[in-house]
Amino acid sequence: MAALCGVCCDEEKEDEDDGIADRDDDNAEEAEDDETGEAELSALEKDLSDIKVKKDRVSRQNIRCSREIRSQQGVTHETEEEAASQT
């Protein structure tokens, strides 16, 4: 019986060790996924920042172009509110 008990205990210990190894593998994969996700998030945040800068630049350029067009047409640089109040 003692030998049988040793076998059972050994099998239980092996199962426990396998469970710990599986859990460690899962944790390592999760950590790797987290790092990859954080890197991807960082890259997306940088892309978003670049897009906002470009959008602001285009908006300023549109304002300058609109002013230039109005000045070429002889329209003063009045605001839309001033123009609306005069009508």
Automatic annotation (TrEMBL):
Annotated organism of origin: Octopus vulgaris (Common octopus)
Protein name: Uncharacterized protein
Highest taxon of the lineage: Eukaryota
Region (Disordered): 11-39, 68-87
Positions with biased composition (Acidic residues): 11-38
